[in-house]
């Protein structure tokens, strides 16, 4: 079975685009409901900036289907940075990002209004690679009650 602690304080995590999705998802929740730990890993946290910067050869544009200038409402509906104040207090948010990430720059997480742990020397995939020397620390941070 699932341990009681996991049932009482589940962890909702996502990496990269998945980090974007969990931040956006949380911003659409209401205040009512169970507390949970929100743990984005190297998240795409600013769709507007990243679309303009051409992240990952236009991955944000591919995902959104149009540039912000053509469909700003869609960006504002899904953009984690624009919706950050809407994340309910019951979401214990904490971002984890490596400072050697060459895919999603750590500056995106540094500019997001949530607690952040930066892992010195970690690249984009180190956060989700079980063989990475950073992985035990990532697991510890995922489960922490910060």
Please characterize this protein's 3D structure:
The structure is a single chain. The chain is built from 8 helices and 5 strands; from the N terminus they run αβαβααααββαβα. With 146 residues, it is an alpha/beta fold. The strands form 2 sheets. Strands 1-2-3 form a 3-stranded parallel beta sheet, sandwiched between helices. It starts with a helix and ends with a helix. 33% of the residues are buried.
In brief:
InterPro entries: AB_hydrolase_fold. This protein has helices spanning 4-8, 17-27, 47-53, 55-64, 72-78, 80-83, 106-110, 135-143; strands at residues 11-15, 36-41, 91-93, 95-98, 116-119. The protein has 146 residues and is α/β, with parallel strands linked by helices.
Please specify the SSE layout and strand pairing.
Elements: H1 4-8, E1 11-15, H2 17-27, E2 36-41, H3 47-53, H4 55-64, H5 72-78, H6 80-83, E3 91-93, E4 95-98, H7 106-110, E5 116-119, H8 135-143
Parallel strand pairs: 1-2, 2-3, 4-5
């Amino acid at each position: 079975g699932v341990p009681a602690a996991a049932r009482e304080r589940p962890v909702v995590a996502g990496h990269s685009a998945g980090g974007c999705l969990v931040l956006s998802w949380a911003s659409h929740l209401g205040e009512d409901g169970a507390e949970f730990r929100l743990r984005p890993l190297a998240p795409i946290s600013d769709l507007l900036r990243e679309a303009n910067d051409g992240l990952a050869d236009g991955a944000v544009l591919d995902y959104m289907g149009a540039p912000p200038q053509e469909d700003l409402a869609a960006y504002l509906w899904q953009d984690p940075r624009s919706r950050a104040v809407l994340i309910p207090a019951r979401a214990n948010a904490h971002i984890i990002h490596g400072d050697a990430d060459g895919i999603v720059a750590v500056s995106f997480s540094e500019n997001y209004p949530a607690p952040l742990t930066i892992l010195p020397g970690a690249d984009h995939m180190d956060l989700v690679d079980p063989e990475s020397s950073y992985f035990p620390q990532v697991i510890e941070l995922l489960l922490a009650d910060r």
